[in-house]
C-alpha cells in the first residue's frame, strides 16, 4: 500500500499496509495516544520527542558540516567463508515473474567445498545443498529452480526469505541479483559478509521522486528480532527520517518477528522526496541494503552505510 496522504492527514490515525508492513502513525509531540497496528512483518509506531531531544544526523554551520556521532566503518571487499543474501523474492505465479539469482565464485587456485542454505523470513530452514567448485568456477542458482523455495510461497504466490553461503575450507566470493522481467527491472550487489558486515546503526538514502518513480525498497536482515507485538515485546529498531536539508521529519519505533524484512520507504517517508533513513537496532545487529527503481526503465541496488557497531 502506498500512503499518499499528507502528514497532517495521517497523524493520530492508525493504518495498515498490505503484505508485510503495518504502520501506526501517531501525533508528532509526546503525550498523544494511539494503538499501533500489528502485522506479520513490521510494526512501526511514530513517536513524539521534539527534534532537539534526538542527536542530529547533520548540523550545518556556515559552509561546514559536523562529523557524524560515530566513526564510519570501512569495509574491504574481501573473500569470506560466510556470506548472506539479506532477502530474496520469487514470484511463483509466472515463469517470467520476479526472481532472485545467487552466484558463488571460487577465487582460489584449488577446489573449494561449501554449502548454500535457504531460509524463510522467520529463519526456518527450507533447504540446504552442498557444492564443489574448481578454481575460478562460478555456481549460479535461480531460486525459482529451488523446489523448497517455491513450495514455501505464501497465498499470494510469493516466496520470500534469505540465503546463507558457507565455505568449509577456503574463502569464496558471491553476489546476487533481483530480476523482474515484467517490470524491466534488474539490480544486484555483492553478498554481505556475515563476519565483517554486521552493524547496529545504518544510514541509507531514500529517493521517492523525480526519475525514481517507483521509489525505494529497504532490505533488512536482522540477527535478533524481538517480536511483533508492541504491547508485549521490546522494540527491534528505531528509524529516523531526515530530509536533504538536515531536518529530522519523523521518528518511528519498530517491532518485528522476522529475520528478513522488506520496507518500502514511501510507507514511512510520507511526502518527503529525498533524504536519509537512520536505522538503529536495539538488540543485536543487522545488514541493510536499498533498491531504487524507475518503473519500466532501471533499478539500482546499493548497500547501506554502517555508522556504528555499538
- Structural Rg: 20 Å
Instruction: Provide the structure class.
Output: mainly beta
Return the string of H and E elements.
HEEEEEEEEEEHEEEEEEEEEHEEEE
Biggest pleated sheet? 8 strands, mixed
Strand order of the largest sheet: 1-2-3-18-17-20-15-23
Described by the principal axes of the CA atoms, the overall outline is globular
Mean pLDDT: 78
In total, the number of strands is 23
Helices, by number, come to 3
What does this entry look like structurally?
This protein has 310 residues and is mainly beta. The chain folds into two domains: 7-50 and 68-73 and 197-308, Hypothetical Protein Tm1070, Chain: A; 82-193, TM1070-like (Hypothetical Protein Tm1070, Chain: A, Sandwich), CATH 2.60.290. It is 4% helix and 47% strand. It has helices at 7-10, 147-151, 266-269, and strands at residues 14-16, 21-24, 42-46, 60-61, 64-65, 82-91, 99-105, 112-120, 125-133, 138-142, 158-167, 173-180, 185-190, 192-193, 201-207, 215-222, 237-243, 248-256, 260-264, 274-281, 286-294, 298-303, 305-308. The strands form five sheets. It has an eight-stranded mixed beta sheet with strand order 1-2-3-18-17-20-15-23. A five-stranded antiparallel beta sheet has the order 9-8-11-6-14. Strands 10-7-12-13 form a four-stranded antiparallel beta sheet, with no helix packed on it. Strand 1 (14-16) and strand 2 (21-24) form a beta hairpin. It is globular and about 55 Å long. Mean pLDDT is 78; it is low at 1-39 and 49-76.
Amino acid at each position: 500500500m502506498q500512503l499518499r496522504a499528507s502528514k497532517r492527514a495521517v497523524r493520530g490515525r492508525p493504518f495498515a499496509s498490505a503484505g508485510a508492513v503495518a504502520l501506526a502513525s501517531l501525533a508528532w509531540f509526546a503525550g498523544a495516544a494511539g494503538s499501533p497496528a500489528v502485522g506479520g512483518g513490521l510494526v512501526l509506531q511514530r513517536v513524539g520527542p521534539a527534534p532537539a531531544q534526538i542527536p542530529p544526523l547533520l548540523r550545518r554551520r556556515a559552509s561546514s558540516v559536523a562529523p557524524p556521532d560515530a566513526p564510519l566503518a570501512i569495509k574491504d571487499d574481501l573473500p569470506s567463508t560466510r556470506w548472506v543474501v539479506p532477502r530474496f523474492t520469487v514470484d511463483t505465479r509466472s515463469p517470467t515473474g520476479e526472481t532472485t539469482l545467487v552466484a558463488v565464485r571460487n577465487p582460489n587456485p584449488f577446489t573449494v567445498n561449501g554449502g548454500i542454505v535457504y531460509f524463510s523470513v522467520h529463519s526456518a530452514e527450507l533447504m540446504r545443498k552442498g557444492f564443489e567448485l574448481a578454481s575460478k568456477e562460478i555456481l549460479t542458482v535461480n531460486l525459482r529452480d529451488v523446489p523448497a523455495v517455491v513450495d514455501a510461497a505464501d497465498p499470494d504466490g510469493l516466496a520470500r526469505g534469505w540465503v546463507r553461503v558457507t565455505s568449509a575450507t577456503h574463502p569464496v566470493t558471491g553476489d546476487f541479483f533481483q530480476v523482474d522481467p515484467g517490470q524491466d527491472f534488474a539490480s544486484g550487489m555483492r553478498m554481505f559478509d556475515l563476519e565483517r558486515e554486521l552493524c547496529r546503526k545504518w544510514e541509507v538514502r531514500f529517493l521517492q521522486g523525480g526519475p525514481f518513480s517507483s521509489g525505494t525498497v529497504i532490505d533488512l536482515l536482522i540477527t535478533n528480532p524481538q517480536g511483533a507485538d508492541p504491547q508485549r515485546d521490546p522494540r527491534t529498531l528505531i528509524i529516523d527520517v531526515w530530509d536533504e536539508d538536515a531536518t529530522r521529519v519523523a521518528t518511528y519505533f519498530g517491532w518485528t518477528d522476522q529475520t528478513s524484512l522488506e520496507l518500502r520507504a514511501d510507507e514511512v517517508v510520507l511526502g518527503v522526496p529525498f533524504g536519509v533513513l537512520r536505522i538503529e537496532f536495539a538488540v543485536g545487529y543487522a545488514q541493510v541494503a536499498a533498491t531504487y527503481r524507475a518503473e519500466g526503465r532501471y533499478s539500482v541496488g546499493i548497500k547501506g552505510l554502517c555508522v556504528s557497531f555499538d
